[in-house]
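Entry 0007
Protein: Phosphomethylpyrimidine synthase
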Amino acid sequence: MAHPITCSPFPNARKIYVEGKIHPISVAMREIHLSPTRLTNGTMEENAPVTIYDTSGPYTDENASIDIMKGLPRIREQWILDRKDVDILNGITSEYGKARLADSRLDELRFGYDHKPKVAKDGLEITQLYYAKQGIITPEMEYVAIRENQRIEQLETVPKEIALQHPGIVSEPILQKERSVRNSLETKLQQEEQLSRIISTIRRVNR
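Output (structure tokens):
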């Protein structure tokens, strides 16, 4: 039974894209819309949306056009070619790959594309670690940095909010909001610490 391909966003959320500052890249994220908070005086306070990590691909993008026979968009293809350090082979070179390609029983399972494999040019390295050692920030590096960052700069004012004193009795909604902000900050700080450790490791390797 065939199932239709859908591109609907998750409930109370929408797909957004954050643009790169170094390279012309767009990083997908999910923006979740929060319900208002009822304050002690009975009024409602609107909450800003929360941006989180998103790996759902085009399947939650209402503007995406999907053809499963062509596969997902090859986002890195042009990034790789622009570096001019790879050669494109004429076809599959492994014995296993050639045997599978010659097996006519698999024809009905094949997708409608013929992507050629790539190899590093003689004497060149094409790993992200190699580029990092050369001081090169690749589109892949910026993409991951933006994706993992998840708009952390928006939390710069959070410590001040947490530090605010409140008079006497505090309602549960306010306490819940403070706990939510504090937990969000702690999560971001943990991510920053992990990133700092990774950077320190790279620097030690470069020495």
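Curator remark: The chain has six helices and seven strands. The longest strand covers residues 13-19.
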